[in-house]
């Protein structure tokens, strides 16, 4: 007898074309082959640092909505890790790629980053715990798979090897598997309407992942 498809497996299959389109973005193609311009990577790093603070806030809100102690601990810890990662960007990647504190502070959120941050925080505050988790999942999962794909394609002496090692590494992938396990467990207890809302939130977030990388490659800023 076939086992029922989990929420995460179904969400991945439903959005597989979008994920493949994400891999094919010029940013990710150039990142993989090592030709991504330094200016583009710097812009991306700055936006990612802004994003991680909002992501951490959304995780903290989701943790407060958890219906069991395990979820509370898991997502409170993930919120802390997101903020710690943002700080580490300043001491690690930003230093490595010559981004000064002044440059970071003077660079506002891009339109795509602004949209993504507000989407996550809005869903975390205004929707149920299962829907909030579904909206947060693509950032974990898609990053992990982009990291793995980039590692497979990367040439030796890659200029962005430290980024690749972070997101292709087993520590990050183990964390993503734990998040997927929780999302599946929560979805298994949800009704049909909640499952449909979870799928919609996952797709919206996956689209925003696509937009985030596309925006970074084009160095998009506010038009006025």
UniProtKB/TrEMBL annotation:
It comes from the Bacteria. The keyword Hydrolase applies. Keywords: Hydrolase, Thiamine biosynthesis. Catalyzes an amino-pyrimidine hydrolysis reaction at the C5' of the pyrimidine moiety of thiamine compounds, a reaction that is part of a thiamine salvage pathway. Belongs to the TenA family. It holds the Pfam family TENA_THI-4. Its EC number is 3.5.99.2. This is Aminopyrimidine aminohydrolase. Pathway: Cofactor biosynthesis; thiamine diphosphate biosynthesis. The gene is tenA. It catalyses: 4-amino-5-aminomethyl-2-methylpyrimidine + H2O = 4-amino-5-hydroxymethyl-2-methylpyrimidine + NH4(+); thiamine + H2O = 5-(2-hydroxyethyl)-4-methylthiazole + 4-amino-5-hydroxymethyl-2-methylpyrimidine + H(+). SUPFAM superfamilies: Heme oxygenase-like. Residues 26-218 form the Thiaminase-2/PQQC domain. InterPro entries: Haem_Oase-like_multi-hlx, Thiaminase-2/PQQC, Thiaminase_II, Thiamine_Salvage_TenA.
């Amino acid at each position: 007898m076939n086992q029922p498809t989990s929420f995460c497996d179904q969400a991945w299959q439903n959005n597989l074309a979008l994920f493949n389109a994400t891999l094919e973005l010029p940013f990710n193609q150039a990142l993989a082959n090592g030709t991504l311009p330094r200016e583009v990577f710097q812009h991306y790093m700055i936006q990612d640092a802004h994003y991680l603070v909002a992501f951490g806030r959304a995780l903290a809100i989701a943790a407060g909505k958890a219906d069991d102690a395990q979820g509370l601990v898991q997502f409170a810890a993930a919120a802390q890790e997101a903020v710690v990662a943002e700080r580490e960007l300043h001491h690690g990647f930003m230093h490595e790629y010559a981004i000064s504190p002044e440059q970071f502070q003077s660079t506002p959120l891009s339109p795509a980053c602004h949209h993504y941050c507000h989407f996550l925080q809005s869903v975390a505050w205004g929707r149920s715990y299962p829907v909030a988790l579904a909206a947060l999942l693509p950032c974990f999962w898609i990053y992990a798979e982009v990291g793995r794909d980039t590692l497979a394609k990367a040439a030796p002496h890659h200029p962005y090897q430290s980024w690749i090692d972070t997101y292709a590494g087993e520590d990050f992938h183990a964390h993503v598997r734990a998040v997927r396990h929780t999302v599946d467990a929560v979805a298994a207890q949800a009704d049909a309407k909640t499952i449909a809302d979870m799928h919609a939130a996952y797709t919206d977030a996956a689209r925003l992942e696509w937009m985030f990388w596309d925006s970074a490659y084009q160095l998009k800023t506010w038009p006025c």
